[in-house]
Every structure is written in structure tokens, then in C-alpha cells.
Queue: 2 jobs
Job 1
Amino acid sequence: MNKNITNMIADIENEAIYTQHSIGRKAFSNKVMKVIASVQRDKFVAPELQVFAFDNAPLSIGHGQTISQPYIVALMTDLLQLESDYRVLEIGTGSGYQTAILAELVEQVNTMELVQALGKQAKQRLTGMGYKNINFQIGNGYEGWLEHAPYDAIIVTAAADYIPPLLVEQLKPCRKLVIPVGQIYMPQKLLLVEKDKHENIHAQNILDVTFVPLRQSDIEQ
Ligand code: SAH
């Protein structure tokens, strides 16, 4: 493993220990950490930010958006308890970094992005890296993506005003949705939402977080 990635992994492990009482675990699964160690985050970051590519911090990806902090990527991925035969919906493709992590772990990833330029760039990047199990869509994540529903897991990587009902509808029973909820510049809550076998919803508050907003607006060029 290169030294930068080794440091990033150590930072994620330390933050997991530091936040263990909130997140209910001292460490993330080996399966998730192995994938985080294998996907090269520098490939998802602009040339001028390469020196920061393995920092345990969010970074700008243009269009006012950010690539998420590696610890948060590890946490959200771990919370979903993914199995290899899962079909996953991701809202907020952004750089495609989280998408790649998911694509390493499950059978099919369906990812939606509101900003056309970001979605296009991520598609090119991930296709160029050889991923064949990802479907891309430009659209509003509040609506979900009916075509491939129902999903075994849903991950939202921008802060929503509320839990989108259509996402809950598109989730299979006994499965999980992880989503930050709250207003911009206010403390947001990372929620783990579970749909039980009777289709009742249980939301668990995991951690205070800071995400860019999940916008209600139209598709952006
Ligand atoms: N997982 C990404 C995070 C990107 S930030 C990464 O690590 O790179 C969140 C992304 O959600 C941004 O790219 C933003 O444009 C997108 N987004 C915001 N509102 C959205 C919406 N309603 N539907 C789909 N994507 C949205």
C-alpha cells in the first residue's frame, strides 16, 4: 500500500475510535476497509488538489460540490451492511469516488447526479477505470430511480430537507437507507433508516455531519 493511503486508513481508524460512542462501533468491517485501501482517491481529485488527495477531509470537485471525507465514506458504506449480490442506489454521484467503493462491493450500482457536467465526468472516469456494473443517470435524487427499483441499499451523499418518501418506497423490506438530513450551515444528522418486513420505518440518528445540500432544483448543465 502506498504511504499516503496507509496514512488515510490510519486516520479513518482513529476517527472511528474517537467517535465510537456515536457510531456504535470501534472500527469498520475489514471488507469495507480493504476496498477503501484499494480505490485510489487521487484519481477522483483535480490536479491542483493532488497533494491533499489522501487527507481525511472533503475536497472541492467544482460546481460548489465536494468529494466526501474518507471517514464518512467508510462509515456510510459500513452502515449499509452490503452483500455481494446487492443492487444499490446512490444519490449524488459527484466525483464518483463513493460510487467506485460501492461498485467494488456489490453486483450493481445505480447512481444519480443533478449536475450534468459532474455526472458525465464521473461516468467517463469510472468507465475508463473498467467498472462495468454501474448505471448512470442525470436527475433529481428526491425522485429516486424507478427503473432498477426496488433496491437492497440506498445511500444519499448530500443533505436532504427530509427523508424522500420515494426513496423509502424504492427500498426493499429488511433493507437500509443512509442519508444526512438537515439544513445547510446547520447541524445535520446522519440517519440510518431501516424498512422492516412490515414496511414500517425506523430511523436511527448516527452522527452530526456537514454535507452539501440535496437540491430540489432542476438538472444543471
Ligand atoms: N459521493 C460524492 C459526493 C458529492 S457531493 C463524492 O464523494 O464525490 C453531493 C453531490 O450530490 C453533488 O455532486 C451534487 O451535485 C449532488 N446533488 C445535489 N442535489 C442532488 C439531487 N437532488 N439529485 C442528485 N444529485 C444531487
Job 2
Amino acid sequence: MFHRNNHTEDKKDTPDYISIKKVLDLIQDIPLEIAFFDPSGRYKFVNERYIADPIIRRKIIGRKEKSYIELMEISSDSLKKREEMFQQALREKKVLHFTEKLYIPKQKKTLFYKRTLKPLFLNEKDDLLAGIFLFGTDISSTIRGQKEVKYMAYHDLLTGLKNRYAFNEYLDLFISDTEAADKSSPFYILYCDLDNFRVINESLGHEIGDKVLKEISSRIKLCLTNMDHVFRIGGNEFAIALRNCANTDEVQAIAEKIIYYLSSSYNIDGNHLSYLTCSIGIVSYPLDGEDKQKLMKNANIALYNAKRKGENTFQYFSQKMTDSAHRILTIKENMHALVDNKTYDDHFEVHYQPIIEKASDGTYRIAGAEALLRWYDPKIGAIDPGQFIPIAEETNLIPVIGEWVYRKVFSDFNSLVSNCKNPPYLSINFSTKQFRVKNLYKKIIKELERFNIEPRHIQLEITETNILDEHYQVKENIEALIQHGFRLAIDDFGVGYASLAYLHKIPAHAVKIDKSFIKLLGTSEKYQKLVKSIIMMGENLGKDIIAEGVERTEDLYLLDSFGCTKFQGYLFSQPLNLQDFKAYLHEENLLTTLIYSV
Ligand code: C2E
Ligand code: CA
Ligand code: CA
């Protein structure tokens, strides 16, 4: 009965809307944005969450979305999606979910909402529409959070530039754009590396270094238009994408501008820096690489060539560069892999080249041996130290590689001298870069003691140019090692800047005359005089003089006549592996006959 009564009452007073009203009252406080529209799209109800301002809340009733846009000051196209969704919800008579982005131009604010539309029907057949519910939640802060995360993933936080990750994605985009335009619009990549940046970090600290990087970023931006992109893709590496250059002249003008701007002096926290420069390698797509890996490899090659041209300059990539540069790059990569995986023992070997001394009785004996590093890379094959040592220096891997060398030599020493009457000294090549490490001498001495070797059995070979390195650490390390009793030899004497006059200032035990002079001995008297004067000078100063690269008996006799008593070269022996050198050590008599029989 109650039910029936109720039913008749509802019918009399437009019962459906009354019940909807009741429902609306009920849901007023639900923590959701709620609006209800009649079938013509007019607002019948809004809650406080949907419109906070009570005046607007009142005004909007009976009006359409156009008023909502005006009253809420949102941009007119913000509700386009909502309108489409409304139509779809009506057509398909179903619940729809979507996200909505409302832009408020006056406040320059964008808000994001999760929306649900639900049509409400008055009958069970679903053809008598009462209206449409709109529910929503503000998800702006979540979206902003996601955007921030995305920003952080794609940007370098120090400079605010896009990062390496972004660069990768942008490259894909640029490539597909160029492809879509039938390759008619090439783009250029300027791969830019700061030349002396490490010095700043090392001498002034990272804080100043960071400030310099920021300044550099703004200087680069000054050289570019809005159409160009700049990325920081490494510590001191930047990539610039130029998509709007008509020809290489325009690209060159930009590269020159960047080089000029970056090489102008910096004033950072009172530090005046005038030695910072940059080198740039340039490639264009599709000409210089059909995919991004090739393109960037070639950009790297071009950059390397710019560096080799003397830094502070740019270089376009050309196919001619690839052969030698690819080899160098592969060597670099493989060297890094070797050091990272610590596979020294598998691919490195130390060979020994005897240093021969002529005794007063006219016999030749082995005084020492020079340790020479050998690298056999499984993919490349044997690599010449003349090629890989400079790369090890350039990549700063020389200290770790050098450490492996001296340890190996120390451990070889003990096995060499085990039943040897006159143990030879072993001479180890050092690059000064190794000596830039603070307290290196302590490490070397400790290692020597571990192997129980007297320091006089070890000679350090440092090239003439390197020995003049003014670096404080270098001097300290070398002096401490000499003080401890190590021998010091000046290597490649004659090719560098140290003239004979310097010789007395250097606390060396030995001087090795560079092989280029020995090679030229037979060609002119000029070289004979020069070599003779080095020998005499050395003798006067009480230093051992070693002639390197002795290949011919004529030269040996000539050197002998000048008073030289120590020799090294193919005439006596090639550098030998440990086993062969051991055998050689015990064949001194054979050596004597060999020399006299030549
Ligand atoms: P270097 O110190 O001047 O070594 C002498 C080079 O001359 C060696 O070349 C040796 O094989 C070569 N040689 C010896 N006798 C003759 C000869 O009669 N004629 C000719 N034409 N050459 C001869 P290698 O082994 O190719 O080494 C090249 C350079 O690599 C070395 O020149 C040295 O500067 C560097 N190096 C080698 N091992 C090491 C190392 O362990 N550490 C460092 N820092 N440098 C190394
Ligand atoms: Ca040497
Ligand atoms: Ca040498």
C-alpha cells in the first residue's frame, strides 16, 4: 500500500525530477565534482566542488556550457572534447571516461580532470532521457608531478638543457621528419666538446666548473634560433641540432660563432678564465650516416679530427676520415673495455729488449732491458704501442695501464734473476700523466717492497719533453723515486726541447739518444757530430749514454769510436717475451760471437 501511494504521488508531481533532486541533495557532499545537465545541455545542478564560487554556482543553472566558459574564464576550445564525449554518451547511451584539460588564459594555468559522463534515463527502455551526469576529479597535481618527472628525465638539471636521453629521442624525430620530407630537408648536428674543461674542475673545483657550464650553455643558446635545439649529452659535451640551415655556409657561420663565443674569457666568482675553448665535429643527415648510430659515430670522428687540428676549431665529417678514425675509436672502446673488465693479463704482455754494454775487455754483456708493453686485441690483432700509448694518455687510462705494467715488470724481475749472476736492471717507460697522481711514488715503492726488489734494479724512462713538465705532482713523484734509489733515464733525447745545456740540471742516471739520430748517422757528418757531442757531454756529467735503435754494425762501430758503451737495437735483439728474454740472458757468450761475426 505504502508503495502504491508513494507511486501515485510521484506521478502527480513530476515524480522523476523530484527523485533526481533528492538524489542530487544527497550527493552534494560527495568528494567529487558533480554537475547534472538536462537533455538540452543546460545545467540543472552543480555542486560546490565543481564550482566553488556561490554566485557563479547560482548563475550557471539553466545555462549551457558557453556560459560556463565565460563565467569560469576558461579558453573556448577547452570544452571541445567534453562536447564530443557528450554526443557520444547520448548516441551510445553509455558511461564514458576521459581526461579533460582546461586552460585559464588569464591565470596562464592549465588544470587536468578525470571525467565521467553518465546519461540518466527515466524508463527501462533507455529512450526517455532525464539528463546527463558529469563527475570529475582534479588530477592536476598528479599530472604536474608526472610532467616534472618527465622534465627531469629529459633535462640536465644543472644547465636546464635537454639531456642525452632527450637527444636520442629527438634524433629519431628529426630523422623521421627528414624521411617524411623525402630527404629534401637535411639537418645538421654539431658535436661540441670543451677542450680544457678538466683543468677548471681540477684546479678550481666542481662548483666553479658547474658555473662555467651554465655560462657556456647560455652562450651556446645565444648563437642559436628558436628552431635549433641544444642538448648537454655528457659532462663537457653538447650536441646542437640545426634544422633550418639552407647550406653548409650557414652551418659554418653558426659553428664559428659558437667557437668565438665560448673562447671569449669568463669571469666566474672573481676567477678570470681565458683558456677555455671548444672543438666541434659536424655531420648532416642523411649524407653522413643513414641511422643515428652511424651519424653520431661519424660526428665523433669529425670531432676527433677537429681536436687533432689543434682544438678551438670545427671540422666537417668526410668519408676519408673513417678508416683511421674508426680504428682509433675502436682502439679507444676496446681499451676502455679492457680496463673495465680488468682483462690485462689476457691481452697485455710485457716484452723486454736487452740493453747491451760493452765492457772494457771488449766483450758485450746485458746491462739491462727495456720493458715494452704489447697489446694483442682479439678483434683488432696486435696494436702498436706507438699508436695505443698516446690514446691511453688522451683517454686518461695511462695511470691504470701503467700501474699494470710496473707491477708486471716487478713480478717478472724476480723470475728473471732467480739464477742470474749479474741481474740486469729493468727499464720501465712512464708517461708524465702517470706522475700527476698525488703520492704515486709511495704506491710504487710499496709495490717494489712487496716484491722485495732493490730500487737500483729499476730504471724509470721518461721522455725528454715530459721530464720538463712543471706540474708540481710530477716533480714531487720523480724526485721522491730518485731519492729512494730508482734509476732515471731520459728517453728519446734530442727530439724535444731539452737542449744539451739542460742535461746537467736533470738528475738522470742515463740518457737514451733517440733512434732517429742513430738512423741518420751514416747519412751526414752533421748527425755524427751531434751524437758525438751528446755522448761526450753525458760522459762529462757522469751519465750513462745509451744509443737506441742500433740496427747496423757500421753504426755500432761508429758509436763505439765516439765513446758510447751502451746500445739497444735490433742488431742485438728485438724485444723478447719473458721466456725468450730469460733464454737470452743465459746466452751471453753466444751474443759475443754474434757481434764479432756480423
Ligand atoms: P720507446 O720508449 O722509444 O721504445 C723504443 C721503441 O723502439 C720500441 O718500440 C722498440 O721496439 C723500438 N726499437 C727497438 N730497437 C729498434 C731498432 O733497432 N730499430 C727500430 N726502428 N726500432 C727499434 P715499441 O715497442 O713499438 O714502443 C713504442 C713506444 O711506445 C715506446 O717508445 C714508448 O714510448 C711507448 N711504450 C711502450 N711501452 C710502454 C709502456 O709500458 N708505458 C709507456 N708509457 N710507454 C710505452
Ligand atoms: Ca723508452
Ligand atoms: Ca726511446
